[in-house]
Design goal:
single chain; 38% helix; 20% strand; OB fold (Dihydrolipoamide Acetyltransferase, E2P); 5 domains; alpha+beta; D-amino Acid Aminotransferase, Chain A, domain 1; Helix Hairpins
């Protein structure tokens, strides 16, 4: 990026971030996710590091938060309430440790880890052991006096508990530290800082109650907590049943470790998360982070990462602060489900049915635990709905096993050089005509001999869900096509070891193995055979429904259109597609040739008898530990159940493994029953 372009980009980013930060911090509103806002801030910080001459005092990177609201009296903090720097992967964490080690001349560090709660930070001040002032963070130097609202929170003691000498002895303090601590405790003048939150259970209960009463629902727990504390009438805060977890003690007590601060806070009557953990080195930190990320949905409160602190307090002033935050603390975020990046190009993929699908080429971005450089766009209707142009800055979403997609365009960051996206008139693979088919959204290559279409069709036949031919992957199939050995699926069954041995990648043994693998799949179950044919709109579930309904290939061939339309979950489009496929002379010739090649279809396995999961549908999301997703689907189907790919109000169960994706959230929204792996195994056994 040239210097002038960087300047323009920086100014636009500053304006965009300030807008979203104002909504979030001052008005308690969110138009984009925290992860997307973090991504914009990180881009700005990176550009300012590269071009420091463009850093200004009004940049979002040079401040902590929004201005305090005018409806409360201002409260000046005894010491700044600073923001934290973010890390997004293990490399970021190792770089952070290296930077600290350079400053401390090779010093080794141990750490204390706390969950990064999604709430509102507050300072709590005690005089003579009594709670006298509570303030929000505000701009970091001056906050809002919200004492009366904070007094409604049961987790905040109105009078400090006095620890016994025995309890203090368990902190393992030095003699000097014990004396200093006792002097402060005797005075009762004390300041702690914590996070005000609303837990998941309370959030769900309140929204259920508000829905019954016809009141507006709470948007999210963070906004609910912040909005409650910023109400002038304390009754609103009391109704919300907020919670508070302490994360630091601002008063100098002569303690030696941050872990001791948290333990002392508990002795004084405050709450601290039981999930907090001491880690002897960075490897333990990374393991703790991974564990918490996997279990975050099971936690009682919402969190988006782990706050990692150097445990030795004497190192804090020596490490100091830089810009907006302390060097000795890092917020190690969980894999963000959203991030921002730029669209650099649009490429068009050709599917096995000839459909041209637009794919966005991205500036690589870390999101959802992986570096993403491409995202699906589905079709031109989706591009027009988003208002997308090449060169746009966009929000990308990815969670768990979900394919990355563009969810929002940020037009405020446009520079005037963005390009409109047009549907190609020619197929990008074969150069044949591409056209919109009447009644369809998709654009399609109309050349039946299109190389890309044929490659996808052949690859689909050998794929795991179809014939599952071991060793016959896309690269091998493409090689066989280029050598003229394979033109359609019947040609697979004509291959000999002698055909393969002269080819690159093949030796005597590998050639023989592939031929044997193809022969081994000459006997195939009817549902897999139907799916392998690649009939438009027919997936694995639809193929099973066809096999169960008619029981044989011959009966499917003879089925009337109205009979196909009566199949559960078959619509008019799918029924017509099947009906027309089996009346195309080229397709019928293919079936005859497959029979002539010795392919045998197992049709006797289809049974009409009642099975334990008949009529029940299961959607799988996340990673299962005891079996693969394909194995789970196969078991469900064997027992008469269905495994649709998406969640709807008609879904009976959503099986949630580790790191579930957006299907989990949709199930919660629709009220679909969610079960874990253990419950699922009991059902299928």
């Amino acid at each position: 990026m040239q210097k002038q372009q960087a300047k323009i980009r920086i100014e636009k980013l500053k304006k965009e971030i300030s807008h979203y930060r104002y909504l979030y911090h001052v008005l308690d509103k969110s138009e984009i996710s925290d992860a997307a806002l973090d991504s914009l801030k990180n881009e700005l910080a990176k550009l300012e590091r590269e071009y420091p001459e463009f850093i200004t005092a009004d940049s979002p990177t040079q401040r902590v938060g929004g201005k305090p609201l005018d409806k409360f009296i201002k409260a000046k903090h005894s010491s700044p309430m600073m923001s934290l720097f973010d890390a997004f992967n293990p490399e970021d964490m190792r770089d952070w440790e290296k930077r600290m080690a350079r400053i401390m001349q090779g010093q080794k560090f141990d750490y204390y880890c706390e969950l990064k709660l999604d709430g509102l930070a507050a300072a709590l001040i005690y005089e003579k052991s009594r709670f006298v002032l509570g303030a929000t963070r505000g701009d970091g130097a001056i906050g809002e006096n919200v004492t009366q609202n904070l007094r409604t929170i049961e987790a905040i003691p109105l009078v400090l508990r006095q620890p016994t000498e025995k309890e203090l002895a368990e902190l393992n303090l030095s003699k000097e530290a014990r004396q200093k601590l006792r002097a402060v405790l005797n005075s009762g003048n004390f300041e702690v800082r914590g996070e005000i939150i609303m837990n998941k259970k309370v959030f769900a209960e309140l929204n259920k109650k508000y829905k019954q009463q016809g009141r507006p629902l709470l948007a999210n727990p963070r906004n609910a907590a912040a909005g409650s504390i910023r109400q002038l009438d304390p009754k609103f805060a009391a109704e919300r049943k907020l919670d508070c977890y302490i994360y630091s003690i601002a008063t100098d007590l002569g303690l030696e470790q941050h872990e001791q601060e948290i333990e002392l806070a508990k002795l004084l009557g405050f709450k601290a998360l039981k999930y907090n953990k001491y880690c002897k080195d960075l490897n333990e930190v990374l393991a703790f982070h991974n564990q918490q990320e996997q279990n975050k949905d099971k936690l009682p409160c919402y969190c988006d990462g782990v706050v990692v602190k150097v445990n030795k307090l004497s190192l804090w002033p020596r490490l100091g602060a830089v810009g907006k935050g302390p060097r000795y603390i890092m917020a190690y975020k969980f894999a963000a489900e959203q991030a921002t990046t730029k669209i650099t190009d649009i490429v068009w993929q050709v599917g096995r049915t000839g459909v041209l699908t637009p794919t966005a080429v991205l500036e690589p971005i870390w999101v959802g635990g992986a570096t993403i450089s491409r995202a699906t766009l589905h079709n031109m209707d989706e591009i027009e709905r988003l208002g997308l142009k090449i060169g746009d800055t966009v929000i990308i979403e990815r969670a768990g096993d979900v394919i990355p997609k563009v969810v929002k365009v940020l037009p405020g960051l446009r520079q005037g050089k963005e390009k409109k996206i047009a549907v190609p008139k020619l197929c990008p693979m074969c150069g044949g005509a591409a056209a919109n088919i009447s009644g369809e959204v998709a654009c399609r290559c109309v050349n039946k001999d299109c190389y890309a279409v044929n490659l996808r069709r052949l690859t689909h036949w050998a794929s795991k869900g179809a014939l599952d031919i071991d060793g016959l992957g896309p690269k091998i199939i493409e090689q066989l096509m280029k050598e003229g050995l394979v033109g359609d699926i019947v040609d697979f069954y004509k291959l000999t070891a002698g055909d393969l041995k002269p080819l690159e990648r093949f030796a005597d043994k590998s050639a023989e193995n592939l031929v044997e693998a193809i022969k081994a799949k000459k006997e195939i179950d009817l549902p897999r055979f139907i799916y392998g044919l690649g009939i438009r709109h027919v997936g694995e579930e639809s193929a099973i429904d066809l096999a169960k309904t008619f029981g044989s290939l011959e009966k499917i061939k003879q089925a009337k259109l109205e009979e196909l339309e009566r199949i559960y979950d078959f619509g008019e489009v799918m029924a017509k597609s099947v009906y027309e496929w089996f009346r195309d002379k080229h397709n019928l010739e293919l079936l005859n040739n497959l029979e002539g090649a010795g392919l045998k279809i197992n049709q006797h396995i289809i049974t009409k008898k009642k099975q334990v999961l008949d009529g029940q549908s299961f959607v799988l999301t996340g990673v299962l530990s005891s079996l693969t997703r394909d194995e789970a689907k196969r078991k469900i189907r064997e027992l008469g159940g269905q495994t649709p790919s998406s969640v709807s109000k008609n879904t009976d169960f959503v099986v949630a493994g580790e790191n579930p994706g957006s299907k989990y959230d949709k199930a919660k929204k629709l009220g679909v029953r969610i079960i874990n792996e253990e419950e699922f195994l009991k059902i299928i056994k």
